[in-house]
Amino acid sequence: METTHIEHIGIAVKSLEESIRFYEDVLGLKCYNIEEVADQKVRTAFFMVGQTKIELLESTAGDGPVARFLEKRGEGIHHIAFAVKGIEDALEHAHKMGVHTIDKQPRKGAEGLDIAFLHPKSTFGVLTELCEDRSK
Ligand code: ZN
Fold first, then answer.
1. How far is the CA of 4 from the centre of ligand 1 (A)?
2. Kind of pairing, strands 76-85 and 2-13?
3. Ligand 1 centroid, distance to 116 Cα (angstroms)
4. What is the DSSP letter of 23?
């Protein structure tokens, strides 16, 4: 697998508006995109830090994955996303290595990325996302 950098860190929050204020007013970052991902029942807000993004995740439905995460663990780091080259091959490699993959095939995530998740039970407790930006 060719992993190039940390694409983003996903952080589960109760309120996008409230948490955006921290990233803008305290850390001095600028929210450049707010996007709803209906598929994952979340609203996301993005900040660029170097070549890595912070992705804030607010749930849009009580039964969504982020709602369940907040219930169980409260606000905090939800996942880490690694940028890879050739996401299909990367996913197949992980699968062959015995990693439990949540997605069998890449799907469309926020910001037009192709994404796939690896199960935290196989990744030492960290929900791990592989992603590839094929628009570049
Ligand atoms: Zn993500």
1. 16
2. antiparallel
3. 9
4. I
Q: What is the whole-number distance in angstroms between the Cα of residue 100 and the centre of ligand 1?
A: 18
> How far is ligand 1, taken at its centre, from the CA of residue 120, in Å?
14
Average pLDDT, rounded, for the chain: 95
Domains observed in the chain: 2-132 (3.10.180.10)
pLDDT of residue 135: 85
pLDDT of residue 76: 98
Q: Cα separation of 117 and 39, whole Å?
A: 14
Measured in Å, residue 8 CA sits from the centre of ligand 1 at 6
Tell me the whole-structure pTM to 2 decimals: 0.92
